[in-house]
From TrEMBL:
NCBIfam families: MJ0570_dom. One of its GO terms (biological process) is protein histidyl modification to diphthamide. Its EC number is 6.3.1.14. It catalyses: diphthine-[translation elongation factor 2] + NH4(+) + ATP = diphthamide-[translation elongation factor 2] + AMP + diphosphate + H(+). The keyword Glycoprotein does not apply. Transmembrane segments: none annotated. It is an enzyme of class 6 (ligase). Residues 25-251 form the Diphthamide synthase domain. This is Diphthine--ammonia ligase. Pathway: Protein modification; peptidyl-diphthamide biosynthesis. Gene3D superfamilies: HUPs, putative n-type atp pyrophosphatase, domain 2, RutC-like. Belongs to the Diphthine--ammonia ligase family. It comes from the Eukaryota.
Length: 725
């Protein structure tokens, strides 16, 4: 269990990325090692903070708390002397009142005691960050992050989701001298194991983990520790005497702890002031020597010459009339598109005003349809220029606070006078359908800096799970611990950003990996990066096949559907590549896959659909490619009609089993080949498909592709079931 009752606080940074830190410190191994990680990252510890039980309660050792470790709190004063740092302490007056997945301020909750403590220290010491020793506990991380958000403090959780076996070895090799101070799990004996050191316990903990699934680092509350010495201590703690207190005499898993009777400090030699922490795990993985392209994969993409332009200007599409809604599905899903921010400097309106008006329009339309902004689970934000990102994001922040939706943000080709466009997926159950089995909504919104995956750099969540479907935010190749774009070029960026996707999927639902992806989009900023994206995607899927070690994964790519790679002008942070996926927690090998091709007047049409094994959702991709260049403008009426026919065949094939009805669509079309007005009025998007759509003009496609119609990146239950008659 992570120790949250005492916290290190940090001050003036030695490096640009560092900040002034407070250490929330209970004396356990996790908080001590995370403190070492903070110092290794360039942060300076300036204070310790600790919460302790109220003496009058009589429960002065073992407090029944969801948040805090209190065993050993009598000895916390020694840590201030051992580290030569000021210690701030407050009492735990509240209890565990708000125990939901999302924490909101509750006056009587014990979390508010932490808020008061950290506010006190921030006012006194001017701290900027908080060290958090959490490894797996979302409950504690969410509450610490909520407190830090309200106080404008940066939580640092460098142990978050680390492999516990490796982590324990690192702690031992980093000279953390900690003893077992509490046991509460099957296999742990108070008489045998209390007072034992980590290195003495490591082999036995590994054995318990293999046999009974015990968390090696005690994340399930199996045991707690007390640190006697670590390289940051100027003095070490010596236990003179202690007694065993039996808290619960369970026959199989007795709960007992050590109560210290007498301790003292001893000076350490000067050589003890230095320490070594293992090299940053995310820095090493982001600069993996295995990230090397093969010669044939790195050949530049041949650019298809412009062969046809519409006589209609691209700006002719009236973006004031593009708003649309799909109507609500039986499972509570609805798709909205066409929310547009208009901006013309000549009108005297600022960029910020235009953004605010657009988000106000979004909120008004949500309200008119019976939704709130908190019901939005996925947002596509298409910007005319990334230079406006900061201004637009500030307006976005003002609207989206708690439970922010996942977001994909790219710069694309928008008409003059259009600042950005938004489309979004909304989910909410009606009272009328309350008798139906509701899908639980889970949100992952990690704000702590760690070695795991990038913290949120904006008001969005990493992932939202509704029922069996996972919606992930777009991922770029930021180094998690520095939040800076990784160096090394497109190959490194492609691998690292896709690794972030994998880690988010796995964290959101155990054993979920890339083979569970139902739909994947990849945005790149140069046509030369297209083969890189395809190569990395296929390579990672092959790795999934090897891990499964199953012959049924013969063609693992088919269970994931088509990867859509499109070239746009810019991405956030000047990244070269961004991945966006929707996955389903199902059995990928039982998915239904359908694919077909046809030729039509000099074009090739490809269609592919994948239905989840649970039949809860499906994806369809249709693509139109020019077979060979032509000197005369092609007639697109026939190919577009055939494309629609093929799409409808795919829908009908799905409907045989699940009565599928398309809810929404995104169409990517190539710059200088089509214009938006032509597609807007074409049978493809208006007359035949008869459902909500989003048009995205891009710069390039792979090979000779000119249109990609995508009905995948839009929804869980992307298909609403018709009632059975």
């Amino acid at each position: 269990m992570p120790c949250l009752s005492e916290t290190p606080l940090f001050a003036s940074p030695h490096t640009p990325a560092a900040c002034c830190q407070l250490l929330q410190f209970c004396g356990g191994k996790d908080s001590c090692y995370n403190m070492m990680q903070c110092v290794a990252a360039g942060h300076q510890i300036v204070a310790l903070a600790n919460l302790r039980p109220v003496e009058s309660t009589g429960q002065t050792d073992e407090l029944d708390s969801y948040m805090y470790q209190t065993v050993g709190h009598h000895a916390v004063d020694l840590y201030a002397d051992a580290m030569d740092l000021p210690l701030y302490r407050c009492f735990i007056k509240g209890t565990s009142v708000n125990t939901g997945r999302v924490y909101t301020t509750c006056e009587e909750d014990e979390v508010e005691d932490l808020y008061c403590l950290l506010k006190l220290v921030k006012d006194k010491e001017g701290v900027e960050g908080v060290s958090v020793g959490a490894i797996l506990s979302d409950y504690q991380r969410i509450r610490v992050e909520d407190v830090c958000r309200r106080l404008n403090l940066q939580p640092l959780a460098y142990l978050w989701r680390r492999n516990q076996e490796i982590l324990l070895k690192e702690m031992i090799s980093s000279n953390i001298q900690a003893i077992i101070i509490k046991v509460a799990a099957f296999g742990l004996d108070p008489d045998k194991h209390l007072g034992k050191t980590l290195d003495q316990m490591e082999p036995f903990l590994l054995e318990l983990s293999e046999k009974y699934g015990v968390h090696i680092c005690g994340e399930g509350g199996e045991y707690e520790t007390f640190t006697l010495d670590c390289p940051l201590f100027k003095k070490k703690i010596v236990v003179d005497s202690a007694k065993v207190v039996l808290h619960s005499a369970d026959a199989f898993a007795p709960v007992a702890y050590l109560h210290f009777l007498k301790l003292h400090l001893e000076n350490k030699g000067e050589s003890s002031d230095t320490f070594m922490v293992s090299s940053c795990s995310c820095e090493l993985s982001c600069n993996d020597g295995n990230i090397l392209p093969s010669s044939e994969e790195d050949e530049p993409q041949k650019i298809l010459p412009v062969i046809w332009k519409s006589n209609t200007k691209h700006n002719s599409l009236d973006f004031t009339k593009t708003f649309g809604s799909s109507g609500k599905s039986l499972r509570g899903y609805q798709w909205f598109s066409g929310f547009t921010a208009h901006f013309l400097p000549s009108e005297g309106k600022s960029t910020q005003d235009a953004a605010r008006e657009a988000f106000s329009s979004l909120q008004a339309n949500m309200t008119s349809e019976g939704f709130k902004l908190k019901d939005i689970i996925l947002v596509h934000l298409y910007m005319k220029s990334m230079k406006d990102f900061t201004v637009i994001n500030s307006a976005y922040v003002a609207e989206f606070d708690l439970c922010s939706p996942v977001r994909v943000c790219v710069e694309t080709l928008l008409p003059d006078g259009v600042l950005f466009c938004i489309d979004c997926l909304v989910h909410k159950y009606d009272i009328a359908t309350d008798d139906m089995l509701h899908d639980e909504k889970l949100v992952m919104h990690v704000q702590s800096i760690s070695h795991w995956a990038p913290a949120n750099i904006g008001p969005y969540s990493q992932s939202i799970k509704v029922g069996d479907v996972l919606y992930c935010a777009g991922q770029i190749a930021l180094v998690p611990c520095t939040m800076q774009l990784v160096s090394g070029g497109i190959w490194t960026e492609a691998v690292v950003s896709l690794r972030h996707v994998e880690r988010v999927l796995q964290a959101m639902s155990q054993n979920t990996a890339l083979q569970h992806v139902l739909a994947a989009s990849c945005y790149v900023t140069n046509s030369k990066y297209i083969p890189v994206a395809h190569s990395i995607w296929q390579r990672k899927l092959r790795e999934c096949k090897k891990e499964e070690d199953s012959e049924t994964y013969n063609d693992v790519a088919t269970v994931c559907g088509m990867l859509a790679v499109v070239v746009i002008s810019h991405l956030p942070r000047d990244a070269a590549i961004e991945w966006h996926v929707i996955a389903v927690v199902d059995n990928p090998m039982q998915r239904k896959h359908f694919a077909m091709k046809m030729l039509s007047e000099g074009f090739e049409i490809e269609c592919e659909s994948v239905e989840s094994s649970s039949a809860s959702c499906a994806s369809i991709s249709v693509r139109l490619s020019l077979i060979s260049p032509s000197t005369s403008p092609p007639n697109l009426d026939g190919p577009l009609h055939d494309l629609v026919v093929m799409f409808r065949q795919a829908v009908e094939k799905l409907s045989e089993d699940c009565n599928a009805i398309p809810l929404s669509s995104r169409a990517f079309f190539k710059e200088d080949f089509f214009d938006a007005q032509a597609l807007q009025t074409a049978d493809l998007l208006k007359c035949i498909l008869e459902f909500n759509r989003c048009l995205c003009k891009i710069t390039r496609f792979p090979k000779k592709l000119v249109v990609s119609q995508d009905c995948t990146n839009i929804l869980n239950k992307s298909w609403a079931r018709r009632p059975q008659l």
